[in-house]
Specification:
By secondary structure, this protein is an alpha/beta fold. It has 2 domains: 215 residues, Aldolase class I (TIM Barrel, Alpha-Beta Barrel), CATH 3.20.20; 70 residues, no CATH class. 42% of the residues lie in helices and 15% in strands. It is built from 16 helices and 11 strands. The strands form 2 sheets. Strands 1-9-8-6-5-4-3-2 form an 8-stranded parallel β-sheet. A 3-stranded antiparallel β-sheet has the order 7-11-10. α3 packs parallel to α5, α7 runs parallel beside α8 and α9 packs across α16. It is globular. The relative contact order is 0.14.
């Protein structure tokens, strides 16, 4: 049973389920699959590779997909946004950084502007600069974020949004997460790690298998892997990944790792190329506890939607007593 919200109406989709624009993982094929299943797929433009972006937009074919960017990457390559807008996508999602320089161009092109935020102040700023949708990202999510927990951040952003639809992100991996987000006032969810562990997602099978085997207790939020990738983000951003031998060796020794950055970066690059995930990071959030298989992405959309619809219809374990 479809769940109708302001988000499904705005994006013209069947289910209020958005694919997170995971860098390189969310390619044209995965985004198109999610959209054709009734959700809204978003290609992850990430740090900015124009050739890759063009190829993945082609791969999405006639599917209605959006494009997501790490906002400050567009300052290094202003052509990226133009390349995306040339295809007339329904929406552009901007994460991390000032959205104001890009808002006018996005609106003039007729695309919706979705802004991912990690704090209430960021939400207010994005709203003031014309955001059509806000994504409230909690620290439970995989990849980069800040410190607020999803459960408390959602209603705070909803209250600050003053009527702008809000999607929840961070730790959402099944229908319970979607139902909970809707009960907290959101209009849908943006899902990353659950879609990483699907057949269509780009990525080594060994990485996906680690997600299936992992527990949220075995994730870590730090800058260790950014140091190893020679790509340290500004404070207060850190990244959540699965713990491995590399993180356990260097945890709490970030300053020392910086002193050995050249040699460790070379070792890390080699590990990424060889699929050695004892050293290379698997970017994943705390929602890994709810991931036990690697199905087609369309099946994930269907599962989340059906489970949430059942919960919202009242088929759960709890009943409200009429007695005082």
């Amino acid at each position: 049973m479809p769940i109708a919200t302001r988000l499904t109406e705005l994006l013209k989709v069947q289910h209020p389920i958005l694919l997170a624009p995971m860098d390189l993982v969310a390619d044209g094929r995965l985004a198109a699959t999610v959209s054709r299943a009734g959700g809204f797929g978003i290609i992850g433009g990430g740090y900015g590779n124009e050739e890759w972006l063009r190829r993945e937009l082609d791969a999405a074919g006639d599917a209605r997909v959006g494009v997501g960017f790490i906002t400050w990457s567009m300052a290094k390559n202003p052509r990226l946004l133009d390349v995306a807008l040339e295809r007339k996508p329904p929406a552009i999602i901007l994460s991390f950084g000032d959205v104001k320089p890009h808002a006018g161009k996005i609106k003039r092109a007729g695309a919706l502007m979705i802004c991912q935020v990690q704090t209430v102040e960021q939400a207010k700023d994005a709203a003031a600069n014309g955001a059509d949708v806000l994504v409230a990202q909690g620290a439970e999510g995989g990849g980069h974020g800040v410190a607020r927990g999803t459960f408390a951040l959602i209603p705070a952003v909803v209250d600050a949004a003053r009527g702008i639809p809000v999607a929840a992100a961070g730790g959402v991996a099944d229908g319970r997460g979607l139902a909970a987000a809707l009960m907290l006032g959101a209009d849908g969810v943006l899902v990353g790690t659950r879609f990483y562990a699907t057949q269509e997602a780009v990525g080594a099978m060994a990485a996906k298998e680690r997600i299936v085997a992992a527990s949220g207790d075995k994730t870590i939020r730090s800058i260790l892997f950014d140091i190893a990738r020679r790509n340290v983000w500004p404070a207060p951003y850190t990244g959540r990944v699965l713990r491995n031998e590399f993180s356990e060796r260097w945890r709490g020794r970030e300053a020392e790792l910086m002193q050995h950055q050249a040699e460790e970066a070379a070792r890390y690059d080699k590990a990424r190329q060889e699929g050695d995930f004892d050293t290379a990071a698997v970017i994943a959030g705390e929602g890994v506890d709810m991931i036990s298989d690697i199905p087609p992405a369309a099946e994930v959309v269907e599962r989340i939607a059906k489970e949430a619809a059942a919960l919202l219809a009242g088929s759960n374990r709890f009943r409200v007593s009429e007695r005082a």
